[in-house]
Amino acid sequence: MQTKRQIIADLLMDESQTLQELSSLLHISMKEVLNHLEHVRKSVKKPNKFIIEPAECLNCGFVFRERSKIHTPGKCPKCRNTHIHEPSYRIE
């Protein structure tokens, strides 16, 4: 039987997933997924890479390219709007 972190890693190898998608697939809270995702990020071995597809403001289109944090930003630094499309994650 696989651990939740192994399941998350396997899901991210197949395709990009958001926190919300992982939460619903695993039937656990987004906060718990976030915790597991941090560990998965650190445990990915070369030649694989943990990729974060950046969040984007739905109001002005600002893309959070320089952000290294895993969780979704609270508001846009450009327009201060809180409608943010959450980042997605994958392992290649």
Structure in words:
By secondary structure, the chain is α+β, with helices and mostly antiparallel strands. It is 36% helix and 15% strand. It is built from 3 helices and 5 strands; from the N terminus they run αβααββββ. The protein has helices at residues 4-14, 19-26, 30-43; strands at residues 17-18, 50-53, 56-57, 84-85, 88-91. The strands form 2 sheets. A 3-stranded antiparallel β-sheet has the order 1-5-2. It has a two-stranded antiparallel sheet with strand order 3-4. It starts with a helix and ends with a strand.
Structural class: alpha+beta
Name the overall outline: globular
Low-confidence stretches: none
Secondary-structure element order, N to C: HEHHEEEE
What is the count of β-strands? Answer: 5
Fraction of residues in H or I helices: 25-40%
Order of strands side by side in the largest beta sheet?
1-5-2
Mean pLDDT score: 93
- Rounded Rg: 14 Å
Largest sheet: 3 strands, antiparallel
Primary descriptors:
92 residues; alpha+beta; three-stranded antiparallel sheet; 3 helices; 5 strands; globular
Quick structural summary:
With 92 residues, this protein is α+β, with helices and mostly antiparallel strands. The chain contains three helices and five strands, in the order H-E-H-H-E-E-E-E. It is globular and about 45 Å long.
